[in-house]
Amino acid sequence: MTDDRWVAPAVLLAVDLVILTLRRSRLHVLLVERGVEPYRGASALPGGFLRHPEEDLTAAAHRELSEEANLDAETLRLEQLGVYGEPGRDPRGRVVSVAYLAIAPRLPEPTAGTDAADARWQPVDRVLSGELELAFDHRRIVADGVERARVTLEHSAIATAFCGPIFTITELQEVYEAVWGIPLDPRNFYRKVQKTDGFIVPVGSARKAATGRPARLFKAGPRAVLYPPMVRPAESSSTEEQ
Amino acid sequence: MTDDRWVAPAVLLAVDLVILTLRRSRLHVLLVERGVEPYRGASALPGGFLRHPEEDLTAAAHRELSEEANLDAETLRLEQLGVYGEPGRDPRGRVVSVAYLAIAPRLPEPTAGTDAADARWQPVDRVLSGELELAFDHRRIVADGVERARVTLEHSAIATAFCGPIFTITELQEVYEAVWGIPLDPRNFYRKVQKTDGFIVPVGSARKAATGRPARLFKAGPRAVLYPPMVRPAESSSTEEQ
DNA sequence: TAGCTTTTTGTCAATCTGACAGAAATAGCG
DNA sequence: CGCTATTTCTGTCAGATTGACAAAAAGCTA
């Protein structure tokens, strides 16, 4: 951070939000329909410019979330995902965008806010496959956010945040399956989760279910970082070997 | 990324660089002595403002690196570390800084460039302990960079980049020990590295050493992502349990 | 040749993983 | 009430991995 005698050029700073949740056992991302140009009518991540030059970035992120999707942003823990500042990514000029990621429990259907014509949950598959096109470079941002979520699930107990306050082990497994996009063995998952110390704690030996054997209920444990981590089965080598 | 009819406020955008290397088995970070206000004379990370509004962020990072430290930046793979945009972090006004991280082999002693009065390697310990004070929030950025490097070492083969093109397993171990800050068992390390497929490949059964048994030589293997990862021994639980 | 140092090869018990069998608990149905 | 379907939970078992440690191998030096 050196400075110049030269006047430093200013750029437009924006925040974009990748809000992930689980609906019907599928990973969904919150999208808005743009109400203004450019990309008017297209789907995009919620977000927007800083309101004033002194606005804090996370504050701006929370503000945009409530403005555009009427979601109670206070309860979401926003994690910085990255900066997207490639010249030309926005037709209006140089816009640098800071992306934030949040992983959320089943959230209510959002209602359109002031800036966006509409706000709704869309399956990430539709976005990643390209079936649903997004404005700007938002598809890339979603992809990065999903990958981050996958890694985060391995090392942190955040998966419990996808569930309600009380959940069964099967429900927790469905979170992992949905985010990782692969099926897991229920018995091994059960064992692993149970003996990962501090991950989940049993809550009143209650029960549940509609058709099978009643499942025990748990709540999130005190540990935030999982050690050893949940290991995601190998899929393919990043670089071919030999 | 919604826009306003309101004129969006512009902020000053800067890049900061955390360049890590190994010198005498200790992790060092590249620092410059600031030649201008604010914090004139204090140590700081190399970096600076965008030169013009259309400059690419990574291009700016590479430019600053060569300007301030005369390092051949082309060979370094810069990885985005995060955004530091807290209001008030820079006395000149609202400055948002994008931090980049690079992990590098033994680099030459840098020479001061145009903007910085001096550029040199400093042990990260001295920075993290607070013994050496840095300008702005750069100590925090260094801390984040070191932690990122530690995690990266677990999952990627980047550790080989700290060594020269040809190295011994002991040299590779010293990289892990320096970055992780803990000692490792040579025999178990040897075994683990050897059977992590594609990590390192033996190069001509040459030898080396001055005092003990000659060590075999290796070069970086084709695999960039390590699976299974190198596991860093547990240190302490992030959240107390029970 | 003996001693020192460092690298390399083993050993062993404990733990973890992946695959799978089968018991337990409930609802629905004839 | 007994049977079946379904889901949850408890085991088992072989193979791989880990951490701790012993000891051989290969040089250099005295």
Give a quick summary of the entry.
The first copy, chain A, contains 6 helices and 9 strands; from the N terminus they run E-E-E-E-H-E-E-E-H-H-H-H-H-E-E.
Care to describe what's here?
The structure is a homodimer of 242-residue chains. Chain A folds into 2 domains: 12-153, Nucleoside Triphosphate Pyrophosphohydrolase; 156-240, Winged helix-like DNA-binding domain superfamily/Winged helix DNA-binding domain (Arc Repressor Mutant, subunit A, Orthogonal Bundle), CATH 1.10.10.10. By secondary structure, the first copy, chain A, is of the alpha+beta class. In chain A, a hairpin with a 2-residue loop joins strand 1 (10-23) and strand 2 (26-34). In chain A, the strands form 2 sheets. In chain A, strands 1, 2, 3, 4, 5, 6 and 7 form a 7-stranded mixed beta sheet that branches. In chain A, 26% of the residues lie in helices and 24% in strands. The N and C termini of chain A lie far apart (43 Å). Chain A contains 6 helices and 9 strands; from the N terminus they run E-E-E-E-H-E-E-E-H-H-H-H-H-E-E. Chains A and B meet through strand 1, strand 4, helix 1, strand 5 and strand 6 of A and strand 1, strand 4, helix 1, strand 5 and strand 6 of B. The structure holds a DNA duplex (30 and 30 nucleotides).
Largest interface: A-B, 69 and 70 residues
CATH superfamily of the largest domain in chain A: Nucleoside Triphosphate Pyrophosphohydrolase
Q: Report the major sheet of chain A.
A: 7 strands, mixed
Poorly predicted segments of chain A: 237-242
Strand pairing plus helix content of chain A: what structural class? alpha+beta
Element order of chain A: H for helix, E for strand: EEEEHEEEHHHHHEE
Query: What is the CATH level 1 assignment of the largest domain in chain A?
Result: Alpha Beta
Instruction: Give the CATH architecture of the largest domain in chain A.
Output: Alpha-Beta Complex
Measured between the Cα atoms of the first and last residue of chain A, the distance is 43 Å
Radius of gyration of chain A over all CA atoms, rounded: 20 Å
Number of helical segments of chain A? 6
The percent range for helix content of chain A is 25-40%
Coarse morphology of chain A: elongated
The tally of strands of chain A reads 9
